[in-house]
Every structure is written in C-alpha cells, then in structure tokens.
Amino acid sequence: MAYYSENNPDAFNRAEAFTVTRRILIFLGVAYALGTVGVHFLSLGMIFPRPPLRYEMTADYVRLTTPDGVTLVGRHWVSPRAKFTLLYLHGNYEDLGRVSEYAPQFIREGYSVFAIDYRNYGHSGGTPTEDNTYADVQLAYSYLRNQLGIPSDRIVIWGYSLGSGPAVELALHQPAAGLVLQGAYVSAYRVMTDVPLFPGDKFVNLRKVPALRLPVFYIHGTDDTTIPFWHGEALYAATTARKAKLFVVGGQHSGLADFTGPRYWAELKKFTDSL
C-alpha cells in the first residue's frame, strides 16, 4: 500500500487522486441511474400529454373494445370515390376533434380516413403506454379489415408525429398497400436529446425502418422545430424498401399541407397511384 513519507510524496498524491476519481465516478453513476429512472417516468407525460377535448360523442363515432376491456373511440370519414382508406394515427396533442378539422381535405382528394383516439385521448379510456398504443392501432387495423371489410391492399397506414411510432410497428406486422410518415422521429427520446443518452428509449423507428417491406412515403418540413428535419432525413436514408419523399423547404411541423399547397396533394397522389 502506498503511504506518505518524506521520501514518497508522489505515492500519497496518487492514492488521493484515485480516491477522488472513484468517488466522482460513483456519484456520476448514481446520478445517471436516478436520471434514467426519472426520464422513464417523465417521458410518459411528455410523450402522451392529454389534449383538450375537442369533440362530443355523436353517431359519427364508434366504440371499440380492447382485449383488456378498455373502450376506444374511432371515426370513419368516407369518400365515395376512394380507392384507399388511410388508417390515420394522429399526433400527441390531438384527438379526433382535431383530426375532423383536416380530414375533409383528404376526402376532397379522394381518400377515406379512419382514425382512433389512443388511450386517455378524447373519449377513449385507459392509460397510454408504448405497448398499449401498439395494441390500440392493431385494434383499429382489425376493425378496418373485419368490421368494415377493407382489403389490406386498400389500406395506407399514416403516422403523423407521435403516430409514426405505432405506424411503423403496425407496418412491420400487418399487410398494407403503403406507409406514410409525416413529421416522424428516429425515436421518442432523441426528439429531446439528439443523441442516445438513456436506455429504455421508446418508439425506436430508426432501428425498425430497415425491416419494412412495403412502400414508404416520407413528408417533413425543413424548418420543423418540434421534430427536427434530420429525423426525417435519417429515417429516409435507413429505409431499404421502395421509398419516396416530400421534404418541404421552410415547412413547419403542423399545417404542412396548407403551407405546401397543391404540391402536397400531387406528391401524395403520385405515391398512392404507384401502389
């Protein structure tokens, strides 16, 4: 053991430096562990904030029951000339009332739309988690296939913002004509941190998109300050399936269709015509 003496002062200094370094590393390790736990619980509220209720239950809405007994609410907007039905998975501060404000645009362009509220959104019950959201969109898909009788090759899965996570997961496991990802993220945590800092990340799209086998259409604004543009670029680059993109110069996260104008609908039609 090193000890201090007038003949060995360097050994004492090294021992002191080692002790201090070890204490710092222990402190940082404990702080990181506590931070990881905190991020896990805080992230649920940040990923799934309950939006203001924007609609009343009417005959336009349907109730779906999950296998664990939770009631979800959905709505079907029908275009009589639609070839495709968009299974629209909305963002994290929206509900079906918000979707109803822009669904008529899709109807005018010749698309039918079916959307649900995830658990604890709108009039849906239950608690949202990553796994619960996957189950919710699977239920919506099954409703399209089994209750509405829509063939899989007439379904286009559409994930906007938060909805891009469950959209990618659904597209990995269920057949569909195509997948549209608008304002999508590489993963939930990296919307805030850019680089992966903590374990337990959620909706890790970047790891999944290389396994997609259906055509994918990416839409992203270059000036998106909610989910920065590099997320869309990275996902597009990682996708090996047939793919197309509409990267809108100056476009923000929301209101992208209005900002882009006719080009938005022309590029969407080009994609769906190719399916």
Give the topology, please.
Elements lengths: L8 H39 L13 E5 L5 E7 L7 E5 L6 H13 L3 E5 L13 H18 L7 E6 L3 H10 L4 E5 L7 H4 L11 H4 L7 E6 L7 H10 L4 E6 L7 H5 L1 H12 L2
Parallel strand pairs: 3-4, 3-5, 5-6, 6-7, 7-8
Antiparallel strand pairs: 1-2, 2-4
Helix pairs in contact: 3-4
Could you explain the architecture of this structure?
With 275 residues, the chain is of the alpha/beta class. It folds into two domains: 1-47; 54-273, Rossmann fold, CATH 3.40.50. Helices cover 42% and strands 16% of the residues. The chain contains nine helices and eight strands. It has helices at residues 9-47, 96-108, 130-147, 164-173, 190-193, 205-208, 229-238, 256-260, 262-273; strands at residues 61-65, 71-77, 85-89, 112-116, 155-160, 178-182, 216-221, 243-248. An eight-stranded mixed β-sheet has the order 1-2-4-3-5-6-7-8, sandwiched between helices. Strand 3, helix 2 (96-108) and strand 4 (112-116) form a beta-alpha-beta unit. The longest helix is centred in the N-terminal third of the chain and has 39 residues, at 9-47. Residues 1-5 and 27-41 have low confidence and may be disordered.
